[in-house]
Protein: Fe2OG dioxygenase domain-containing protein
Amino acid sequence: MATTSESDFDYVLSQRKAFDETKAGVKGLVDAGTKKVPSIFRVPPEKSEKKVSNLSNTSHVIPVIDLADIHTDASKRHELVEIVKRASQTWGFFQVVNHEIPVSVLEEMKNGVKRFHELDTKDKKEFYSRDRTKPFFYNSNFDLYGSQPALNWRDTFKCLLYPDAPKPEEIPVACRDILLDYRKYIMKLGILLLEMFSEALDLIPNYLKDLGCAERVFGICHYYPACPEPDLTMGTTAHADNDFFTILLQDHIGGLQIRCDDKWIDINPVPGALVINIGDLLQLVTNDRLKSSEHRVLSNHVGPRISVACFFSPGAEASLRPLGPIKELLSEKDPPKYRETTFTEYEAYFVAKGLDGRSALAPFKI
Structure:
């Protein structure tokens, strides 16, 4: 006879499977007129945290860095590198403006994500998949069948942007042109940021690029529908990113928070800005010099919220090579804090673990 816990697990699994099989995502629930958050999305009371903000706390304001003239003014570049260094060590997050991506491109990128997610379900279904190797696919909750206690109130499509974008016919018309355009801009900014991170570590500018930190880039494009009971569920559960670093485009709605000193701090949207955050892999290779911060997204009565996260990761071959703390950053006083691993091993652990609030770096610490 099954125990209560086994029965509960089977019930939850059947509910998640039924949701998955609709291929309509959270948007489908909203379109169906749901007025209550289904049980599989409800965060258990013991796992819930207060959704505090920092709107009145000016000491917790993430830096906004102006990149204007960085290519022509050496003294300003040095100054900006120091700001990036402090932000990456303290917060693991900062925002950038004057990054040379036109506002019109940012707006069209958000519009393209919205257009795709608001297609009729029958038109989106052909792209619905849980095969993470596909160059373009759409689903809801990559860890749907994981052990996390509640699903997140969002849908997502993922698109390979670099080194090779999908064939045009593999990308939906609703977002095809802008994705192929956006990838060119995002790579240029990504290389600049890697140079700044390298210089912040007193390494040559090309060091992190040559290490393979920008060999593969994915766009993770989220759609957070308006939620009827936002206090009962999360847009995205607390986690740190499974990459070297992330360039995030968020809309005006807000909801992104980072954990600092056991408090949740808002990263308020800045018009025309992009959010930059350090990922687990950069924390590992810099031996904790740069910080991968835990962050989350609140659900909201207002929606949809749109965001586009570009993840910079190792390429296919590099994913199998040993990855460990950079030798130039080590000394007797600062020995390695992590064992060598591979991106393949790390990613497998991250995916199996899901967004359960635990650090994905913990198993690799010495």
About this structure: Residues 176-200 form the longest helix (25 residues). The chain has one domain: 11-364.
